[in-house]
Amino acid sequence: MQLKAPRGTYDILPPDSSKWQYIEGILKETAETFGYREIRTPIFEHTELFERGVGSSTDIVTKEMYTFKDKSLRSLTLRPENTASCVRALIEHSIYSGIMPAKWYYIGPMFRYDRPQTGRYRQFHQFGVEAFGSNSPYLDAEVIILLIEVLKRLGLKEYELHINSVGCMQCRDVYRQKLIEHITPVKDKLCPDCQTRYQQNPLRVLDCKEKSCHQAIVNYPTLSQHLCDDCASHYDVVKKGLKANSIDYRHDDNLVRGLDYYTNTAFEIHIPGIGAQSAVGGGGRYNGLVEDCGGPDLPGIGFAMGIERLLLAVDTLAKELDSGKSDVFITIMNDDYELQALELLTRLRQENIRAEKDYMGRSGRAQMKYADKLGARMVIIIGDDEIQQGYFTLRDMQSKEQVQIDKEEIIESVRDRLAKFRGGNG
Ligand code: HAM
C-alpha cells in the first residue's frame, strides 16, 4: 500500500511554503504593532478543557474532536481551537495578577474531524488573538480593527464584516426562553440536528446551515431586541468605534457563532469568491469563560482566522512572490574548483546573500541553465583563468554583461549590485 497523508491533511511544499512564510510574517507584524505578544500552547490538552471551555453541546465537542487515551489512560484531545488553551494558560500561570490587559496572539495547527472540502481540513492553521482583563467596548473595536488591518495588509479589499451582540448571561436567558417558545410549535419542521438541540441551545437554530430551519422559524424574536441596557450600550460603542475607523459592517441577527463561550460582541468576516467556506475569521467576547474554566471573573475577547482560507483569497497575489529565488549562483568550469566554490558560497551566505551552487555534476552550460531556473540575478564563474589570475567573472543574468572582479572585492561587489536591483525593482 502506498502511504499517503491522512484525509483532510496535506503537505506544504516549496514554493508554496514561501506563501505561508509571507502571510505569517504579515500576521505577526500586524499583531505586534497592535501590542499583542506571541503565546505557544501545547497541541494536545486534557479533553475536559474543551468540554468545559468550548461547550459540551457544540458540534466541535460532540462530533469533531480528535480524542485519544495515552498510555496512562488519560483522555487527551488534539486542540480544535486555541481560546480554551489560552484561558487554561492564563489561569495556570496566574497571568491575571499581572498587568492587564494581557494581549496574546498565536499561529498554529488545529484539528477538527469534519468532512474535508475546499477551505475545510482536518488539520488546519489558525492565526488568532486573545485579550484578557478588560470589558471596554473600545477593546472590542481594537480587535476588529486588527482583523481588518490584516486583510488590508494582505491586499484584500473585498470582504464582509458581520457583527451582532449575543448579550450577557442574564439577557440571553430571557431571550432563550422566548426563542424556545417561538420554535416549539414548529419543531417538527427543523432539521434532525436542530430538533435535538433547540431545547438546550436554541440559538444554534439561528445559524443552522439548513434552509428548512430558517423557513420554519421565520419572524423569530431577535436578540438585539432583547439586550439589557448595559449590553445594548456596549454594542453601540463597538459600532461607533468601527464607524470612527471607517470600517463597514453589517449587523446580522443570525450571527450567534458555533462555540458556547460568547457573550456580547460576536463577529465574522467573509470573503466572497473563495467557495462555500467563506468565513476567513470569527470571534467575539467571552466574559464568563475564564471563570467557567476555574479562574477568576475576568473578561476576554478575541478572534481566529483560518490561514488556508486566507491563502485561497490571496492566491493570485502570493503567486507573484519570488522569495524562493537565489540571488547568486556559483558556476565552476572544472571539478577542481569545488572547494573554492563552497568556501565562497559560505562567505556569501554569511552576508545573508541567497547563494547556491550545483551538486549534480552538471556541465558548465547546464549549470548556467540551472542558475536561470533558480532565478539567480547573478552568476559568479570560477574557471582556470580566474583561479590563475585571482579574479572572479560576474555575469548579470538579465543584461548578460560579464565583468572581472578582484577576488577580494567580490562580496562587496555582489552586495552593491543586489542593493541596486532591490532599489530599482522594489
Ligand atoms: P471558529 O469560527 O471555530 O472560531 O474558527 C475560526 C476560523 O478558523 C474560521 O473562521 C475558519 O476560517 C477557520 N477554520 C475553522 N475550522 C476550519 C477547518 N476545518 N478548516 C479550515 N479552516 C477552519 C474559533 O476557533 C474561536 N477560537 C475564535 C475565537 C478566538 N473566538 C474568540 N477568540
Distance between the termini: 49 Å
CATH class designation of the largest domain? Alpha Beta
What is the residue-averaged pLDDT?
Answer: 94
Major sheet summary line: 8 strands, mixed
Oligomer: single chain
Query: How many domains in all?
Result: 2
Q: How many helices in DSSP terms?
A: 16
How big a fraction of the residues is strand?
15-25%
Percent of residues in helices comes to: 25-40%
Q: Return the CATH topology of the largest domain.
A: BirA Bifunctional Protein, domain 2
What is this entry, summarized?
Helices cover 39% and strands 20% of the residues. It has 426 residues and is of the alpha+beta class. It contains 16 helices and 16 strands.
Task: Describe the protein in words.
There is one protein chain. With 426 residues, the chain is α+β, with helices and mostly antiparallel strands. It folds into 2 domains: 16-168 and 228-318, BirA Bifunctional Protein, domain 2, CATH 3.30.930.10; 325-425, Rossmann fold. The protein is built from 16 helices and 16 strands. It has helices at residues 16-33, 47-53, 59-64, 83-92, 137-153, 169-183, 192-197, 203-206, 211-216, 229-244, 289-292, 307-319, 338-350, 364-373, 384-389, 410-425, and strands at residues 37-38, 44-46, 66-69, 75-78, 102-111, 123-132, 160-165, 250-251, 263-270, 279-285, 300-306, 328-332, 355-357, 378-382, 391-396, 402-406. The chain has an 8-stranded mixed beta sheet. Helix 1 (16-33) runs antiparallel to helix 5, helix 1 (16-33) packs across helix 12 (307-319) and helix 5 runs parallel beside helix 10 (229-244). The longest helix is centred in the first third of the chain and has 18 residues, at 16-33. The protein is elongated and about 95 Å long. The model has no long low-confidence stretch (mean pLDDT 94). The structure holds histidyl-adenosine monophosphate. Residues 81, 83, 112, 114, 119-121, 124, 126, 128, 130, 259, 279-284, 302-306, 308-309 line the site of histidyl-adenosine monophosphate.
